[in-house]
Write a structure and sequence with these properties.
Chain lengths: 387, 647
């Protein structure tokens, strides 16, 4: 019921407004991100739950959630370029690494290495902007090829970048050695130390939890809005049929370039925050070579398992991928032949399951976890009919 | 948009006679920003407030005066339901003119007849379709001076001296209004009780349509009885109620359900996009009050069955289980006059979360607190189904000539198969000789326009209105309609049979859309059947029976067997003499424009006897030249020929 002050404001009784979710009287309500009371309710409950969760969770679970939030930002970024714009990228780990070391360059305080020691309000945006610029610059190379070839080109980027990370020792500390990352000090508030936040006394971990949660929500809302704007529709058009998109007047090269730049920005932010999940240290080996490839594949798995071309899917995928090892660990000893004495060890099983899930989702439910949710929702949406 | 109100202190309150425009004006003065109605345009429901409503009515009223409309002049409206219909209707009444509504489906010949008969000076035509009809017959209507069109698409290029577009029309009204600010007050003070305010053309199953004249007094009495006192919806409608307007407004029932209910009770009217989108619109709007003709109820009922047929196994099981419970609830409610017992209340509460709530939501009836059915007889089975899922439908009876005031089933005193009890304070009796229902009350119409002889036939010297319906009393309180006097079949054996009862029973089958029982002066009853294309088509597809057209479908032996079974089922419910022995399929869908149905979708029997005489002869001369069958076997010469051809 929004109306500007100058217009006559049509009124209806409250009884008329309630319980008619499909009756839209203005475009704003029709277009709203949460356009039904159901979505508003569930999103509200989810956020409320996440806000009170750290006060009831133990340290390891809180850390796990921090990892989820940080990885989810990266997954959203990959989903924008691969899920929405259809450009498969294996180079995601490179942009994450670039973000991590850019952040460290601007915010690092370790006197042994390069670092300007700036506030997080500067180094975190820079951790996004520099990868975005690099993404923008390399995209013209990548956008000349499609599909499998694109995957190989981005893989190449990963290896070139990896070499750069490993050899730029004055910034990265070199492979297997690493360095301390930029401290998360935002406007003078050190999130890596215990202290009050909004008047509530918290541990360092809880403060980091809220920092990453807020950043994730901001990132997700921006991405969601982006995908339902002109830019997002251009992404989808390019993905579904690039020639048709070009015929419609969607500039192919620029759209792909935009997709890579935005995706790299998200990857960079994820990278800037990634030290929060690893005790404040960064090691270039994690973003280079085989390790880097594994990181890229992990993000690809989040997108594929969660659901390509859905923001909520990226979130689900991040939750799934991050929590999977924890559940495998917890349940492994109930299953025979697993463990140090059995056929496979727990980490091996994790990797096997990981692969199995990717294959299973690709074949059985290409829309990912989000697709599963859609099935459930549609089942009840039409109930008692089937369509 | 500015909402200018002329003198908020409405003079209508001080005047003796309340009118529909006065009500709208009072509401606009009281709370101009309250939403009066909504219309779905460009994908969303656009609000129209009471202030805008009255503003527009006043503009239209002045525009009409500026076009030369004087008290007693006729203004015709040829449009689907939309806010402009109401603006024009009330605008005309505000200048003491007479509104005449045309059905959007009326073909040019009928348009010509009604414009000529009523002598309408101004025609408000919705779009190119209606403008074309009017221009085609314009030379036959000497009184017609202006044709105002609402939708410019396609009409813009027309150059005809009588054409005017809606914005120009309104602009004229605004100018005139500025020059004569007191005109409406003066006209309102001159209103007489016996001012004719509308001509409602009866559908005319026999002979040409006749324009029934309803006066201010008639409508006021009807509004009081039906709306204020809860004759239509009980408890009476209030501003918290929501309705969907979708049946033709030129019919008295929808006029009462939309215009009158809105003005009197302040309900929010939502205009459906069209009759085809009714199911979607219902689901969006979720009205609290719902009036429908039996055809719509049957359609919703059949729709549920068809959709359940293709539902998943688990959903079917759940549905089957709770529908058995709904049957129990329905039976018990019917036995108790619609009152809940402890058992039905408990069962309904249990079934609500599992099925009833969702089911009602999907068909758009979740919020319905009072529903009614009228304008044609409805099968008790359909009523019972809706009672069972928690949508009590109260059958109401009335006709144009008594402004829809006759009888209604009151909550708690429902008798299925009857049309209920007479409204309080009206006189209603059943003629002892003919069995005809007679009514006498202030809403009895003033007569047929230009047809004093027909008026004399309908209203007798004592003021009794002869409804033309044969009725009987049920337990001294409720009226049961047997049939139209003219439709009663007297078989060769001398037995009186009411065909509509049998036809309605047949139509409860989701596969049968139209059934016409034949047997006057014949040794036994037969029927012409029209299938429901959607459901039978769906059924055939599921059985992998290939077909091309409607006609082709009616020749399939499997379809004939399906119909044969429906007829056998119906026969079990009736006495032997009322059993249908043979049937033939009607080879086309009946249509208003082809003259087989009236605008209100009532079958014109005489037209069918002419059109399908060969089918009837086929049955009574014991031939089998056309697709059909008897109770034992079916035959389809065309299908047989096709098979032979293939072989």
């Amino acid at each position: 019921m929004s109306a500007t002050a100058t217009e006559p404001n049509p009124k209806v009784s409250a009884k008329l407004r309630r319980g008619r979710p499909e009756l839209y009287t203005d475009y704003a309500a029709d277009m709203a991100m949460l356009n039904t009371p159901g979505k508003r309710l569930w999103t509200g409950l989810l956020i409320l739950g996440l806000l009170i969760a750290p006060f009831y969770l133990d340290r390891s679970w809180t850390s796990l959630f921090i990892t989820v939030f940080v990885f989810a930002i990266g997954a959203i970024g990959l989903n924008l370029v691969s899920g929405y714009a259809g450009q498969v990228s294996l180079g995601h780990a490179f942009f994450i690494g670039l973000g991590a070391f850019t952040g460290t360059y601007f915010g690092g305080t370790d006197p042994n290495f390069l670092g300007l020691g700036l506030d997080m309000a500067i180094w975190l945006p820079m951790a996004g902007i520099i990868p975005a610029i690099v993404g923008w610059a390399v995209a013209p190379l990548a956008s000349r090829v499609r599909g499998l070839y694109l995957a190989i080109v981005t893989l190449g980027l990963l290896f070139v970048g990896g070499h750069f990370f490993n050899e730029f020792r004055s910034l990265t500390g070199g492979p297997n050695l690493g360095r301390t990352a930029a401290p998360p000090v935002l406007f003078g508030v050190d999130f890596s130390a215990a202290g009050p936040l909004l008047g509530i006394e918290m541990t360092a971990r809880q403060r980091t939890y809220f920092l990453t949660l807020v950043l994730l929500i901001v990132a997700a809302v921006i991405a969601r809005n982006l995908t339902r704007s002109k830019v997002g529709r251009a992404f989808a058009a390019v993905r579904d049929r690039d020639i048709a998109a070009e015929v419609m007047g969607v500039p192919l090269a620029r759209t792909k370039q935009t997709a890579f730049a935005i995706s790299s920005f998200y990857a960079g932010i994820c990278g800037g925050l990634i030290s929060l999940t690893s005790g404040g240290r960064l090691d270039p080996i994690n973003f280079a070579g085989a390790e880097g490839l594994f990181l890229s594949v992990t993000f690809l798995a989040m997108v594929l398992i969660g659901g390509p071309a859905t923001i909520s899917g990226s979130l689900m995928g991040a939750v799934f991928v991050v929590f999977l090892p924890r559940f495998v660990e917890a349940f492994a000893h109930y299953v025979p032949l697993i463990g140090a004495t059995g056929l496979v060890t727990v980490p091996q099983l994790e990797n096997i399951l990981f692969g199995v899930f990717i294959v299973a989702f690709l074949i059985l439910e290409p829309r990912g976890l989000f697709g599963l949710w859609l099935r459930v929702r549609n089942y009840w949406k039409a109930y008692p009919f089937s369509y | 948009m500015s909402t200018v109100l002329e003198r908020p202190a409405s003079p209508a309150g001080s005047q003796a006679i309340s009118t529909l425009p006065a009500r709208v004006r009072a509401r606009a003065a009281e709370d101009p920003d309250l939403v009066a109605m909504r219309e779905k345009r460009f994908g969303i429901w656009q609000d129209i407030t009471w202030g805008e409503y009255w503003d527009r009515v006043a503009d239209v009223a002045h525009a009409l005066v500026s076009l030369g409309i004087e008290p007693g002049d006729r203004v015709a409206i040829h449009s689907e339901n939309r806010p402009a219909w109401l603006y024009v209707d009330l605008g005309t009444v505000a200048v003491r003119g007479i509104t005449m509504g045309l059905y959007p489906t009326n073909p040019p010949a009928e348009v010509s007849y009604m414009l000529r008969d009523s002598g309408s000076k101004v025609l408000i035509a919705e779009d190119q379709e209606q403008v074309d009809k009017a221009l085609e017959v314009e030379h036959e209507c000497p009184d017609l001076e202006w044709i105002v069109y609402l939708e410019p698409r396609g009409v813009r290029e027309y150059h005809h001296p009588k054409l005017m577009d809606w914005p120009t029309f309104l602009e004229r009204g605004r100018e005139h209004r500025a020059a004569h600010p007191d005109l409406l007050d003066r006209l309102a003070s001159e209103v007489q009780d016996d001012d004719v305010i509308t001509l409602i053309y009866t559908s005319g199953t026999t002979g040409p349509p006749k324009g029934a004249m309803l006066t201010t007094g008639n409508v006021e009495y009807a509004v009081r009885t039906l709306i204020t006192e809860g004759g239509f919806y009980d408890p009476p409608a209030s501003p918290d109620d929501v309705i969907l307007s979708y049946l033709p407004l030129c019919h008295v029932a929808e006029r009462a359900a939309t215009t009158w209910t809105n003005a009197e009770a302040g309900v929010t009217v939502h205009f459906a996009e069209s009759i085809e989108t009714i199911q979607t619109n219902l689901k969006e709007v979720q009205p609290t009050l719902f009036f429908a003709v039996p055809r719509i109820w049957e359609k919703i009922h059949a729709g549920i069955h068809v959709k359940m047929h293709s539902a998943s196994r688990l959903k079917k099981l759940v549905y089957g289980f709770w529908m058995r419970i709904a049957n129990v609830i329905g039976d018990e409610l019917v036995a108790n006059g619609g009152n809940h017992t402890f058992k039905t209340r408990l069962l309904y509460r249990l079934g609500h979360p599992f099925l009833f709530r969702a089911l009602r939501d999907r068909v758009g009836l979740r919020k319905v607190r009072a529903a009614s059915s009228g304008a044609a007889p409805i099968a008790p089975e359909v009523l019972k189904f809706f009672f069972g899922i928690g949508v009590p439908i109260y059958e109401i009876y009335g006709m144009t000539e008594n402004a829809a005031v006759a009888t209604v089933n009151r909550p708690g005193r429902v008798k299925l198969g009857t049309v209920g009890e007479p409204h309080p304070n009206i006189e209603l009796k059943i003629d002892e000789e003919t069995g005809e229902i007679l009514t006498r009350h202030p809403a009895n119409f003033a007569g047929y326009w230009n047809k004093p002889d027909k008026t004399m036939e309908t209203i007798d010297g004592e003021g009794w209105l002869h409804t033309g319906d044969v009725g009987v009393w049920v337990e001294g309180t409720h009226v049961k309609i047997v049939d139209r006097i003219k439709d009663i079949i007297i078989t060769a054996g001398g037995k009186n049979i009411s065909p509509s009862e049998i036809e309605n029973s047949l139509k409860t089958s989701p596969f049968i859309k139209e059934a016409v029982v034949i047997g006057d002066q014949k040794p036994y009853l037969t029927a012409l059947i029209g299938i429901e294309l959607d459901t039978v088509g769906n059924w055939a597809q599921r059985r992998e029976i290939p077909y091309t057209t409607y006609r082709d479908l009616t020749t399939k032996p499997e379809v004939l067997q399906l119909i044969q079974k429906a007829i056998r089922d119906t026969n079990e419910r009736f006495a032997r003499v009322e059993n249908i022995r043979k049937f033939r399929m009607m080879p086309k869908e009946l249509d208003h424009e082809d003259g087989e149905m009236t605008a209100t979708q009532k079958v014109k029997r005489s037209a069918l006897h002419d059109l399908f005489g060969h089918l009837i002869d086929d049955m009574y001369t014991n031939r089998t030249e056309h697709p059909g069958g008897d109770l034992v076997s079916v035959h389809s010469p065309e299908a047989t020929a096709a098979e032979e051809g293939a072989a």
